[in-house]
Amino acid sequence: QVQLVESGGGTVQPGGSLRLSCAASGLFIGAYTMNWHRQVPGQERELVASIAPSGQTTYYSDFVKGRFTISRDNSANIIWLQMNALKPEDTAVYYCEKSPDYWGQGTQVTVSP
Question: What's the pLDDT at 100?
Answer without folding.
Answer: 84
